[in-house]
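Fold this sequence, please.
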Amino acid sequence: MEDIKIEKLDHQGRGIARINDKPFFIPNALPEEVVKVNVVEEKKKYGVGEVEEIIISSKKRIKPICPYFEVCGGCDLMHIRYEDQIQYKQEKVIEIMQKFAHIDSKIVKPIIFSNHPLNYRNKVTFQVDNCVGFYGKKSYHLIPIDYCYIATPKINEVLKQVKKLPLQHIEKVVVKTDEQIEEVMVILEINDALEEQKVISTLKDVATSIILKRGHNEKAIYGLDYLCFPIGDYQFEVSPSSFFQVNLEQCEKLYQKVVENAGITKEDVVLDLYCGTGTIGIYVSKFAKQVYGIEINPDAVRNALKNKKRNQITNIEFVCGDCGKVVKKLKLKPDIVIVDPPRKGLDKDTVAKLLTWNTRTIVYVSCDPITLARDLNLLQEKYNVKMITPVDMFPNTYHVECVCVLSRR
C-alpha cells in the first residue's frame, strides 16, 4: 500500500488516517508520521490497519521501555513521552465533552498527572495457558511475559514464582498488592485440584495470602482472605472478588478533589451511589451529617460494613442492591450525591431520580469520558456542569478518570 500520513490519535490512542476517503485506525502510529500500512480489516465505513514500516517518524515517538509493548494488550501509549500522554488525555476529554455534551473547554480543568507512571498498578490479572502473560492487542492470543512495567515490584516477584507451579491446572492468576504495608494476595483461578502444600511452599515467600478459586468457590489456603489498603487516614478491607482502585497514589488525589468540590457541610446528607467497598463514602463522612452508600455487589457491601467498623465511622449506612431500583424507593432527599458507576455509566432509573431530587450538588466520578458525556447530556436538564477534572489513574494506557461537579439550577 502507498505511504499514508497519520492525522491524529483516536480515543483509544490509535492513529487515524484516511485511505480512499475512509478513516482507518492504526495502532502504534502517531500524528504527523508517514507510514506503510497493512490493512487488517475493512468495513463499509472504516478500516483497521497495522504499521508495516515507519517512513517518517514523529518527534514525539520514544522507544518503549517494555519489550512486549507492540504485541501486548496492556498498554497503548508507551511509545510517547509521559508529558505527551498527559496532553493527549487532556485534549481527548475536552474533545469528547464538546462533541457529545456541548460543554465549553474552559469547564475542563488541567489533568492531575501521576508522579509515578511506571510500577503503579496494585492489581494485575495474568492469563494462563501453559505459560503466564497477557492477551495480545485485540485478541485472545496469549503473550508470555517475564516482567510488567506498569505493575508493582511485588507483583513482578509473584510472576516469577507462579511460573514454577503446575500451570496446566491454572486458568488465571490475580495478584493484589499493598506496597506500603507489603501485603500481597495471590488468587489462583483453577480448573483442577492443586496440591496445596506445593502452592504454599512456592508462593509463601512472595505472598501474605493465597486464595484458590474454583468456579464461585474461594478458599484461603494461606494467610487472610482479605487485604487492607490505606487511603488518607483510613484503612480499607478488600476481599478477593471486590473492586478496588488499582492506583492508590492517584486515587487519594481523586478523592481529595471530590472533597474539595463537593462543598459538604455538617448539615448535609450525602448519598454515595455505586459505593463499592465504601471508600469514597467513608473518606467524606467526617465532613457530613450522614452518609448512605448503595452497592450491588454483596461481597463489596460486606467489606464496606467491615470498613465502617475498622475506621470507627458512626454516620454511614450501606444498602446492598441495584442502584436504580433502590433509589426509586428511597425516601430520603440527599443534599449531595456522589456517583462512581462502572464503565457503562449511570442506569436510566438513577438518572431519572437525580432529575427529580432537589440535590444541591452531584459529584460524578467517571472511568469513561464517553458515558460521562452521555449522562451529562441528560443531567444538564436540571444541573449546570461546573467543573470536570481529568485524573490520570492509568499512565501508559488511553484510559482516563474524571471528577465532574454539577450544581442544581
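Residues 82-101 form the longest helix (20 residues). The chain has a mean pLDDT of 95.
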